[in-house]
């Protein structure tokens, strides 16, 4: 079995566990007034689990269209050193750091720093575009979550109130 099918098998197993949690463990915890709603908090996880499982099955069963050229595979696990693994590990580290800094630094500062540092890691060097775009995107997301959805999201660090 090729590497992409092994990855699809792992993703399928994760999706099945996620789907089990979405279909069988989330809904009984809802209060009675929410059980009459057409869309529950578990609706998106259910859709996501089904679509991801179907996609993983398509790859696992080999139903996707064959590539036009039969040359080298997309990912050669024997040449992992040739890929930019350092950038991927730095991005994973930035994601973990972002999750840890979200409460103490606040959403706005942590998100602007995460977007900026991630873009710099990937090679962006035009800071006069990068920082305003990161700030604008962060502000829009914060407004959507706080203002539109009504979910409190601490915008600034805890010591700034």
From TrEMBL:
<keyword id="KW-0812">Transmembrane</keyword>
<feature type="transmembrane region" description="Helical">
    <location>
        <begin position="129"/>
        <end position="153"/>
    </location>
</feature>
<keyword id="KW-1133">Transmembrane helix</keyword>
<keyword id="KW-0472">Membrane</keyword>
<feature type="domain" description="DUF1468">
    <location>
        <begin position="6"/>
        <end position="153"/>
    </location>
</feature>
<protein>
    <submittedName>
        <fullName>Tripartite tricarboxylate transporter TctB family protein</fullName>
    </submittedName>
</protein>
<dbReference type="InterPro" id="IPR009936">
    <property type="entry name" value="DUF1468"/>
</dbReference>
<feature type="transmembrane region" description="Helical">
    <location>
        <begin position="106"/>
        <end position="122"/>
    </location>
</feature>
<feature type="transmembrane region" description="Helical">
    <location>
        <begin position="83"/>
        <end position="100"/>
    </location>
</feature>
<feature type="transmembrane region" description="Helical">
    <location>
        <begin position="45"/>
        <end position="63"/>
    </location>
</feature>
<dbReference type="Pfam" id="PF07331">
    <property type="entry name" value="TctB"/>
</dbReference>
């Amino acid at each position: 079995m090729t590497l992409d099918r092994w990855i699809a098998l792992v993703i399928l197993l994760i999706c099945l566990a996620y789907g089990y949690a979405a279909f069988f463990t989330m809904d009984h915890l809802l209060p009675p007034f929410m059980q009459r709603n057409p869309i529950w908090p578990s609706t998106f996880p259910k859709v996501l689990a089904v679509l991801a499982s179907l996609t993983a099955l398509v790859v696992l069963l080999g139903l996707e269209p064959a590539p036009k050229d039969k040359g080298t595979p997309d990912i050669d696990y024997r040449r992992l050193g040739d890929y930019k693994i350092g950038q991927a590990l730095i991005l994973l580290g930035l994601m973990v750091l972002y999750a840890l800094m979200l409460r103490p630094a606040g959403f706005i500062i942590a998100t602007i720093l995460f977007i900026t540092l991630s873009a710099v890691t990937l090679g962006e060097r035009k800071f006069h575009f990068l920082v305003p775009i990161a700030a604008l995107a962060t502000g829009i997301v914060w407004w959507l979550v706080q203002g539109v959805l009504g979910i409190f999201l601490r915008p600034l660090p805890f010591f700034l109130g």
